[in-house]
Write a structure and sequence with these properties.
With about 260 residues, the protein is α+β, with helices and mostly antiparallel strands. It is about 55% helix and about 20% strand. The chain contains 7 helices and 7 strands, in the order H-H-E-H-E-E-H-E-E-H-H-H-E-E. The chain has helices spanning about 1-60, 70-100, 110-130, 150-165, 195-200, 210-215, 225-235; strands at about 105-110, 135, 145-150, 170-180, 185-190, 240-245, 250-255. Strands 1, 2, 3, 4, 5, 6 and 7 form a 7-stranded mixed β-sheet that branches. A hairpin with a 3-residue loop joins strand 6 and strand 7. Helix 2 packs parallel to helix 7 (about 225-235) and helix 4 runs antiparallel to helix 7 (about 225-235). The chain is globular and about 95 Å long. The chain starts with a helix and ends with a strand. Adenosine-5'-diphosphate binds near residues 192, 194, 210, 221 and 249.
Length: about 260
C-alpha cells in the first residue's frame, strides 16, 4: 500500500518535471528563433546601404572621381547611405534597451503643449517640402503630464514623421488632445495613404513595413512604431491605430496627467 503510494507520487513528480522541461525547451526554441530572425533582419537592412556604398566607391575609382559632377553626386549618395546606417544602428540600440528592460524611464512633469510645439517646429521643413500641413488643436493652457519627456518626444516625432512620410501631397497631420477622466489621450491623425487591414495588426512589429519600397525610399527602418509601442507600454499606457486605405491613419495613445 505504502510503496504504491510512493511510486505514484514519484511518478507525478517526474511527470511534472518533464512538463516543465518541455515548457523550458519551447521557450528556448522561441528565443532562438526570435534571435535568428532579429539578426537576419538586421543584416538584411544593413546590406543595402553597404552594397550601395561599395557601388558608389567603385564608380568613383573607375574614373568617376575625375568628373567633378559625378564625384560630388556619388559622395553625396555615399553620405546618404551612411546616414541610413546610422539611423538603423541607433534604432537598434533603442530597441535592444527597451526589450531587455534596461531602459529606465525618467519621469517628470512637463507641458505637452510645448513639446508638440517643438516637434512641429522641427518637422516643419520636411512637411513643407511635401506640401503637408502640420495642424495642432492647441489648448490655451499648458497640459501637464507625468512621463519621460525625451521618450515622449521620440514617440511624437515618430508619429508625426510617419504622417508626413506616408501622407499625400497637400494633406495634413493633425495633433489633438482629449481629456479622459484619469489620463490624457493624444491623437495624431493624417489623411494620407492609409494601411490595409491585412497589415494593420502587424505594424507595431519590429521591421514590419506595409509598403517596403515606399518605406525604404523614405529612409524607414521598420523599427519606429515598435519603439513607439515599447515606450508607451513602458509607461503602462496604451497605443491604438485605426486606418483606411486612401483615407488616412489615426494613432491614439494615453499619458498620465500630472497632478
Ligand atoms: P518605417 O521606418 O518603415 O516608417 P515604422 O515602424 O515607423 O517603420 O512603420 C511601420 C510601417 O507602418 C511603415 O513601413 C508603413 O508601411 C506603415 N505606416 C506607419 N505609419 C503610417 C501612416 N501614418 N500612414 C500610413 N502607413 C503608415
Amino acid at each position: 500500500e505504502d510503496s504504491s503510494d510512493l511510486i505514484s507520487s514519484a511518478r507525478m513528480e517526474v511527470e511534472e518535471w518533464a512538463k516543465n522541461q518541455t515548457k523550458e525547451i519551447t521557450r528556448l526554441k522561441d528565443l532562438e528563433r526570435y534571435r535568428k530572425e532579429f539578426v537576419g533582419n538586421v543584416s538584411h537592412e544593413l546590406k543595402t546601404p553597404i552594397f550601395n556604398i561599395q557601388g558608389y566607391i567603385l564608380t568613383l575609382l573607375e574614373g568617376g572621381i575625375d568628373d567633378p559632377k559625378v564625384n560630388k553626386l556619388y559622395l553625396k549618395r555615399t553620405e546618404k547611405s551612411i546616414d541610413r546606417m546610422i539611423s538603423i544602428v541607433e534604432d537598434l540600440e533603442s530597441i535592444t534597451k527597451l526589450e531587455s528592460g534596461e531602459l529606465k524611464l525618467k519621469y517628470e512633469s512637463f507641458d505637452l503643449v510645448r513639446l508638440v510645439d517643438d516637434v512641429i517646429e522641427m518637422e516643419q521643413m520636411m512637411a513643407s517640402e511635401r506640401k503637408i500641413q502640420l495642424q495642432f488643436n492647441r489648448p490655451e493652457k499648458p497640459v501637464k503630464v507625468l512621463a519621460d519627456k525625451k521618450r515622449i518626444m521620440e514617440v511624437m516625432t515618430n508619429l508625426v514623421v510617419n504622417g508626413i512620410k506616408y501622407g499625400k501631397r497637400k494633406g495634413f497631420v493633425k495633433i489633438s488632445f482629449y481629456d479622459l477622466k484619469d489620463n490624457l489621450m493624444v491623437e495624431v491623425a493624417d489623411n494620407g495613404l492609409g494601411i490595409d487591414s491585412k497589415h494593420l495588426a502587424r505594424i507595431f512589429e519590429r521591421f514590419y513595413r506595409a509598403d517596403k519600397s515606399r518605406s525604404r525610399e523614405q529612409g524607414g527602418t521598420g523599427l519606429g512604431l515598435s519603439i513607439v509601442k515599447h515606450i508607451i507600454e513602458a509607461h503602462e499606457q496604451t497605443i491604438n491605430v485605426k486606418s483606411a486605405v486612401d483615407e488616412g491613419t489615426t494613432f491614439t495613445f494615453t499619458l498620465e496627467k500630472a497632478k
